[in-house]
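Let us begin with a simple case.
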Amino acid sequence: MARIFSGRIGSDSQVLNVRTGERERTGNILTMQGKETKGIDEAAAGDIVALAKLKDTATGDTLSDGTRVVRFPPQEFPPAAISFAITSKAKGDEEKVSNALKRLSEEDPAMQLRFDAQTKEMIISGTSQVHVEVILDKMKRRFGVEVELHPPQVPYRETIRRKAQAQGRHKKQTGGRGQFGDCWIEIEPLARGEGYQFEDAIFGGSIPRNFIPAVEKGIVEAMEHGVVAGYPVVDVKVKLYDGSYHTVDSSELAFKIAGSLGWNKAMGLADPVLLEPIMNVEVTAPEENMGDIMGDLSSRRGRPQGSETVGEVQVIRAQVPLVEMLSYAPQLRSMTAGRGSYTMEFDHYEEVPVHLAQKVIEEAAARKKEES
């Protein structure tokens, strides 16, 4: 659909897409009357028409006469407020679903689509649950594929609370050449958000220099699956400070395995804990709903960060765990009779309270059992 702001445009005309710099041929010009379409020869300023067969034009693009280029500022679309994980109903339709959603996202910039590498889920986000349902209904009608919606998995992390030392020793003797790798590592917690650091503190050749990268590689791969619930480990410093090797049996593979064994032992001794993502949430709603919204955010373990009046509405800011926000959109709509909205963005990770961590661990174990 396009709106003509000035001048006239005829069928089978050439126009310039200002964003791409490429010329487009308009093809037929259609007017919409309910479900019916009617072809016309020309459209003038003020008309809203459908342009067929545009090759590389997306929602929000400006089409202009090449001799007098005009570019309208980009449209601002409301941020996504609710997300779902999607799975295809029919086995083998995954590629069809992906292609269909990609096409629909080009038409609807308010829709977001991404693949979560950690949870291995396709995530679709929209301005509301109704918005997402309309997108999926359109996909069913136009592309003939259906999906099921699920709450997305929360991207938990793991870390440690204290220092620990451990030995990783891999020794395997077969009929021919054996495998031998031996390392000692020390791990310690870093400040939240500092990620991962590796220190090579080997002196005197206790581990040959060419095997040290293999030890680190084994540790990094093991950190992808923590010992608490199998989530990636963050904010840890690892120091490799001692070890031994065999002139014949030692290899990169042996030291890689030794590194992962040492890591798993050390993490188990370092008081490991679960971390959950904390979101900055901003809720906009009428003043009469302030009390209900504040109470609801508190029940979701939210920490108020202040509020202010903007025009005739109140803007409430809080920090809330992501897991508590998965069902927030319909609840906010119910509390405010559809007049409230919210946005959220990731801020940092915090420890999961002890009384909730066990539930997360059990759910992760159940998922792992199903996948196996």
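The second case is a distinct protein. As before, the sequence precedes its structure tokens.
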Amino acid sequence: MKAISLEKKAIPSKMPDALLQWYYPNHRDLPWRHDTKPYHVWVSEIMLQQTRVEAVKGYYARFLEALPDISALANCEDDKLMKLWEGLGYYSRVRNLKKSAQTIMNDYQGTFPQTYDEIRKLSGIGDYTAGAICSICFGLPVPAVDGNVLRVMARVQEDFRNILDNDFKKDVIRQLEKVYPTVNDCGNLTQAMIEIGAMVCVPNGMPHCEECPLNSFCMAHQNGSVALLPVRERKVKRKFENKTVFVLQCGDRIAIQKRPSKGLLAGLWELPNVENFLTPEQAIQQCSEWNVKPKELLKIVNRRHVFTHITWEMQGVFLECAEPDNRFIWAEPSELESIYSLPTAFRCILSE
């Protein structure tokens, strides 16, 4: 047992050389890797949270075209900002981007801070993002530990602890903090750690162990336990909510309204909705109470949208209305595309 423990402890020090030799010729050509400007790395890292790489590429290009620097982000109108983010979800991310940009303009004269502690204090930046910016942009010996890194470490060390436990993450960070100061290329080591998890030691399906530069000392590979790792045990129970969502049509226009300033999808636009499923008669009565004078029930559709801890089961009720009521904004289809940011949770109601 003591020999196994020593073998595990030795693994992190073996990883940098193997990873970097693999990374230089094999990494993906991603737009946010074309430079190490802190603003670019920061925006990309925030976008990549909970979002696929392929989906981010287009958003990243459009975002930087519209908001090329920290000053532009800090001064961007909220509706324009939400429209740029529309479809990426987790809208608190972009609110925190703007808030942090304003902090950088006010407290750092528009220059991105260059120490871990200062970066970590910015709104919306956690340990991982701070570590990524520090190592990639400034070459500081600070690890960036995300789900990819946790999965790789669980497998190479054949560690059966729950990778979602904070103690496991802290242990991985402590191990890598000892390794990073020994490396000359901290930025690319961070990229390599993430890349190997995304492309080789993959989260879904069997990892590509035959292609992995770590396979000569990966304990899970050697002991045939790769398929059993990592251990992921979530403790949060998912909540389900039923909603009736109204597509109120008056000519070509559709009724929308602003969500409350706090809570899920705070401050974004939404289709009018109420809790629980209504019968057609109840839905028509609700519209009458809103003074939109429903003329015809056009159709009812069923949709589901999954958030991190909540699932919305939605019944979409399409109604033609005789006249608009000023409690709502009545938006034309072109305005929904160009002006108003309607989250995917509601756009999926409109899709056929």
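The radius of gyration is 24 Å. The mean pLDDT is 94.
Keep these points in mind for the review questions at the end of the chapter.
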